[in-house]
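Hi all, long-time lurker, first post. I run a small reading group and we've been trying to get comfortable going from sequence to structure in the token notation. Rather than ask abstract questions, I figured I'd post a concrete chain and ask someone more experienced to write out its structure so we can walk through it together at our next meeting. Sequence below, copied exactly:
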Amino acid sequence: MSILIKAFDTTEAEKLSKLSRQTFIESHGHSAKAKDIEDYIQSHFNTENLTDALEDPYTHFSKVYFKSQLAGYTKLILNQPHSLINNPNVAKFERLYLLKEFYGKGLGEALLQHNIDLAKKRQQKALWLFVWTQNDKGLKFYKKNRFKIVGKHNFKISDDHYNPNYVMLMKISK
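-- Answer (accepted) --
Happy to help. Here is the structure in token form:
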């Protein structure tokens, strides 16, 4: 099989940091000033923060390989309610990032299904996420996969820059 999905190990914070930085720049690097993007990356994708997240039992990072090459990852946070969603048993699907060279190979679909299965096993009733309003490819992907827009959110990149995002929800059943 050419696609393999595995959990990130708690000792892989450096690998996750490098992948997070690269995929964030590829997908959002043009959405704000270079300094704002760099400050965001330094703050959110450093090994200390990622080590803490990897050790959190409610947070699950999954990595995907395509033909034995690390191609991307996801982050799922269990029992993460949102004010627009009237259910405490929902998971925040915080990241689905792929390296650009692996777009169009079915990896996003495989990662999404992996996270749906993981959420179901943990009795989650839905997945929710933020998606940048200008991310046409992401919006199309999520809508195709039964996510519905339920609200808006200003995603903070820096003290003076926010990207408008949609809040999207997908109900999942057992």
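A couple of things your group might point at:
The chain has a mean pLDDT of 94.
Residues 13-28 form the longest helix (16 residues).
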